[in-house]
Design goal:
The protein is 88% helix and 0% strand. The protein has a single domain, classed as Four Helix Bundle (Hemerythrin (Met), subunit A) (Up-down Bundle). It is mostly helical. Helix 1 runs antiparallel to helix 2.
């Protein structure tokens, strides 16, 4: 049973890492869009504001994903470190 719990925790950790990577990519893309909007000759204030909100949301969600990854890393250590 401990071996199965360890493997399940490792699988969840991998899923969390993949999710974090996707969220990091989303944040990078949204930051690039924001920079592009700000660099336009006649910037659209409403579009910039909306994109700034998207970037802020991306950062919050990414922060939560970081916490999730850390939690699963701790769980993997707790469940797997003493196994043969």
């Amino acid at each position: 049973m401990p071996q199965e719990q360890c493997q399940a925790a490792k699988a969840k950790l991998e899923q969390a890492k993949q999710r974090r990577k996707r969220l990091q990519r989303d944040l990078t893309e949204d930051e690039a869009k924001l920079a592009h909007l700000k660099a336009e000759p006649h910037p659209d204030a409403a579009a910039i504001e909306a994109q700034e909100r998207m970037v802020e949301i991306d950062r919050r969600v990414l922060g939560a994903a970081e916490v999730e990854v850390t939690g699963f890393e701790e769980l993997v250590h707790a469940l797997c470190d003493d196994l043969p």
